Amino acid sequence: MAEGGLKLRWAALAIAVYLALITVIARATHMPYVLFPELGALGWVIFGDARHPWARSPVLLMLTPFLAAVLGLVITRHLPYGPVAVLLDVAGSLLVIGALRSPIAPALSAGLLPLALGIHTWTYPFSILIGTGGLALLIKLRQRWSRGRVSPHSEGTDIGPAPRSSLPPLKSWAPAFGVFLLGGLVLERLIGSPLVLFPPLLVIAFEMIVHRQHCPWRGRYFSVLVVANSAAVVGLLLVRTLGVVPAAASLAVLATLALLRLARLPFPPALGLALLPFVILQPPLAYPLFTLAGSFWLLLVVAVQEAIDCGDQGGDQGGGQEGGDAGSDGGGFAGDGGSSGGVTGTA
């Protein structure tokens, strides 16, 4: 237990230092999107758990967000922000993930970011590649170092590449995901900001709807809402007081990880909410309210989907097993968190 806690402290320090370095590169090259908000979640999981699929897929870690970023940029350059552009963007990013059988869900955020922020420069996909490429390089160096120090009596961390990930059947998640997207677009029109459908929200939705049986934070709706929007407030305050500087990026990471630890919540996407203001030209004071609206809508969709799932399972089992099955149904998601590829250990 103590060893695990020490490992997580080193992971927190590592990602804080990495984000500070990335901020230096972004400022020096005048390529602000090198500070891709999802680097926080990716780095936290990769540094914290060498067995997680993200930490075992260095090529896909570079390729998936890059291709999604290219797709999102092309759509942004040819279509205005709206339902058609957003739906094409999300569908295209899902096709990239599915075609590559990639576990890198944060590619969804890379695809939507150009639309949400109005990015038109062709340097954007290559900016994303700098950050993810750095993480991929660190993965390869860690694997080489692990092979060099493994002994016959040690378990080691060189466990080979992750198995390719396949999307579940469309009918099991597409209706709920579609309702989430369409409702989010209605909210965006009513509230008047694309930040209602903020890019990290797609990653959260993907995990909670598409991979709902293995989502480690599913069922903890209130905690997710509080931590996510607290992280948004932290990121906004740091940018508006300190600016986009290395110290602010590091503090955003460390403060968000402290919130996660306090809540005992395995929820890496919160780091994306804290870092998103760093790539917004003038982040509005209402940013946390926009993220609150989007997060609340997603959690409402997930709660309804969970109720439908439970009803379907109860109807299928039927007969004399109904009472016992209902009891096991109620606690199902709490146990599922432990099987999600090691993400639960990162809280």
Please provide a written account of the structure.
With 347 residues, this protein is mainly α. The protein is 68% helix and 0% strand. It has helices spanning 2-29, 39-48, 58-78, 83-100, 107-117, 123-149, 174-191, 199-210, 221-242, 246-263, 270-275, 287-317, 322-330, 332-336. The longest helix is centred in the C-terminal third of the chain and has 31 residues, at 287-317. It is globular, with a radius of gyration of 20 Å. The model is unreliable at 152-158 and 319-346 (pLDDT under 50).
User: Which runs of at least 5 residues are low in confidence (pLDDT < 50)?
Assistant: 152-158, 319-346
Residues in helix, %: 55-70%
Topology pattern, helix = H, strand = E: HHHHHHHHHHHHHH
Main sheet characteristics = none
- Class based on secondary structure composition and strand pairing: mainly alpha
State the oligomer: single chain
Number of helices: 14
Strand content: under 5%
Number of E-state strands: 0
- The rounded Rg comes to 20 Å
Shape: globular
Distance N to C terminus = 13 Å
Mean pLDDT score: 87
Highlighted features:
single chain; about 350 residues; mainly alpha; about 70% helix; about 0% strand; globular
